[in-house]
Write a sequence for this structure.
């Protein structure tokens, strides 16, 4: 393969200015991330520790293999909403006893770990990832159940989580629940529907109705241990399979359970040399434009992400605004699609053909999105942009190899669809802090609405109030700008998290490895398209 040669001048003033702008964006993300582990407030963190209990992320750290990474997913879910940042739950992927597993646990410092609507949104995406990638699931269970003040937004769809637990078991995907504290009402079904359960002595409790509800329902007086304590469930009901003496003992037991699963992946695994890129991944922070209106060459990202910076480019002289080709990441062969500008008919045709070729060879696809959309105008329409753009979207929609998406710039309009956006079921989708996403750019959207307003006024024979129209346009542009940011998008679980650009290779390597837990097989048929 050809070795990419970087043209990025990392010593230039332009690079330094862009790097500083990107750093400012990342600092805002980092500040939000730092607030999540103590989202309930230091008072509740201290109370939790005083009771001899670990925080959820401390449990995860103690559970996974030493010196191995934990890829937390959707850590800033609910950012910019009325729900707690992080949605009161930690979800992610780590290595336990040498096995890649999915791990989820409630944050007990916020309303006793109770679930809110954002918890369900975050959990739904997490369950997608668990199921499609065949990941053994470990639940670090301790929750007060649903936030009863939000029950109308939770109850009906909340039951889907229990259904998915049983479906994982049916599909042969192991489920393990370690219960550290109260697991009340609906929360009691988490251990109830798991294949393996570990209860912490003197701490874990599981009951459909606690002592107050039992008293109200059947006028029975009963204490918590007799009703649903760890020892009772271990000796009497049989809900508990293992009785742990403390939290660390429970985590040890979970590790032992994972060890005897003899879990095997169905994908082929890495087959290429996983040597480092020729260029420092730390330079990725300044390789993409902080201002998405400023173009940059996606090959600079590839040179700092692919093994040995090797890249076999496909059709380099045709449709050159879409860079396609083959390489590998951490030893896993992949096909690459990266934007170097707007999508014309040539780029659409090239992308559709490339996706078919990768499906024919069972090669996963990695999309680097920096796209303002498909070309518009008379020449584009007469040249068949609709049918050709539809061809690319058809190929993306019906492709069956795993897709991985990295949002490294703009993602506007149907360009988001053609580059396997969130609605097109990528296995994983991550963003850089400069990411912007919307139907179109804020200025363009406000301009379109202004033209429509003028046309409407003219049709009705009314004069335009220029000052009022200018104010409306400015307000709309600012609103769309606010709703287009990476933080706004990640808060609504439109991606699986904002990452530091320097971590791109590591995050993609982990994601691709996880996807090989399931069979990696391409489509043999696509929908009909016009030629």
């Amino acid at each position: 393969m050809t070795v990419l040669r970087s043209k990025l001048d990392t010593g230039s003033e332009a690079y330094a200015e862009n790097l500083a702008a990107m750093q400012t964006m990342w600092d805002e993300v980092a500040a939000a991330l730092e607030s999540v582990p103590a989202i309930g407030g230091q008072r509740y963190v201290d109370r939790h520790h005083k009771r001899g209990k670990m925080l959820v992320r401390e449990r995860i750290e103690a559970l996974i293999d030493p010196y191995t990474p934990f890829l937390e997913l959707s850590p800033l879910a609910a950012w910019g909403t009325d729900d707690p940042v992080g949605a009161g739950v930690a979800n992610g992927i780590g290595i336990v006893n040498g096995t890649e597993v999915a791990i989820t646990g409630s944050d007990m410092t916020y309303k006793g770990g109770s679930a809110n609507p954002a918890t369900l949104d975050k959990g739904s995406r997490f369950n997608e990832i668990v199921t499609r990638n065949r990941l053994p699931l470990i639940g670090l269970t301790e929750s007060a159940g649903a936030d009863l003040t939000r029950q109308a937004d939770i109850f009906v769809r909340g039951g889907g989580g229990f259904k998915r637990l049983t479906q994982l078991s049916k599909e042969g995907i192991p489920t393990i629940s370690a219960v550290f504290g109260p697991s009340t009402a609906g929360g009691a079904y988490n251990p109830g529907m798991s294949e393996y359960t570990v209860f912490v002595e003197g701490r874990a409790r599981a009951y459909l109705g606690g002592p107050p509800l039992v008293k109200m329902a059947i006028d029975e007086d009963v204490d918590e241990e007799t009703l649903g304590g760890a020892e009772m469930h271990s000796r009497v009901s049989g809900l508990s399979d293992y009785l742990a003496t403390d939290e660390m003992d429970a985590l040890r037991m979970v590790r032992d359970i994972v060890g005897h699963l003899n879990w095997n992946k169905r994908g082929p695994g890495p087959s290429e040399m996983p040597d480092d890129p020729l260029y420092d991944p730390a330079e990725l922070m300044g390789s993409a434009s902080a201002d998405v209106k400023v173009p940059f060459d996606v090959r600079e990202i590839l040179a700092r992400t692919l093994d040995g910076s090797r890249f076999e480019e496909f059709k380099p002289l045709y449709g050159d605004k879409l860079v396609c080709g083959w390489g590998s990441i951490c030893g896993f062969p992949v096909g690459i699609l990266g934007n170097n500008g707007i999508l014309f008919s040539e780029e659409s045709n090239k992308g559709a053909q490339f996706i078919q070729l990768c499906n024919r060879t069972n090669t996963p696809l990695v999309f680097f999105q920096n796209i303002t959309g498909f070309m518009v105008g008379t020449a584009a329409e007469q040249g068949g942009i609709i049918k050709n753009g539809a061809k690319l979207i058809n190929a993306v929609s019906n492709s069956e190899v795993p897709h991985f998406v990295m949002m490294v710039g703009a993602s506007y309009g149907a360009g988001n669809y053609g580059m396997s956006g969130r609605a097109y079921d990528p296995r994983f989708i991550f963003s850089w802090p400069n990411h912007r996403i919307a139907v179109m750019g804020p200025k363009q959207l406000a301009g379109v609405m202004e033209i429509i307003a003028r046309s409407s006024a003219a049709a009705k024979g009314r004069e335009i109030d220029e000052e009022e129209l200018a104010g409306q346009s400015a307000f709309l542009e600012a609103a769309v700008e606010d709703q287009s940011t990476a933080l706004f998008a990640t808060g609504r679980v439109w991606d699986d998290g904002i990452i530091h650009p320097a971590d791109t290779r590591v995050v993609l390597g982990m994601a691709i490895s996880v996807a090989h837990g399931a069979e990696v097989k391409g489509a043999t048929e696509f929908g009909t398209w016009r030629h």
User: Anything to note?
Assistant: The radius of gyration is 25 Å. Residues 228 and 237 are 9 Å apart (CA to CA). The longest strand covers residues 175-184. The first helix runs from residue 13 to 35.
